[in-house]
Write a structure and sequence with these properties.
Elements: H1 7-19, E1 25-29, E2 34-38, E3 45-48, E4 52-54, E5 63-65
Antiparallel strand pairs: 1-2, 2-3, 4-5
């Protein structure tokens, strides 16, 4: 999330990316320690203060250490 974007603006962008073919999107909100996970055909998943997030199955074996951001 860019410092100049609002959460609502960022969520709209992510929904647009998914609508246009992206298979996975992570919206990282460093201000509230949340990660919103976007996948086609699924409800947005909100993770509260996760340590890591997984790219499976789109990015098999990829783990991002979100704890470094908080």
């Amino acid at each position: 999330m860019s410092p100049t974007d609002t959460l609502c603006e960022s969520q709209d962008k992510m929904a647009e990316y998914i609508a246009h073919g992206a298979q996975l999107g992570w919206l990282i909100d460093p201000y509230n320690a949340r990660v919103y996970v976007y996948r086609p055909g699924q409800a947005v998943e909100c993770l509260e203060n996760p340590t890591t997030i997984s790219g499976d199955p789109v990015l098999p074996g990829f783990i991002f250490n979100v704890a470094e951001i908080w």
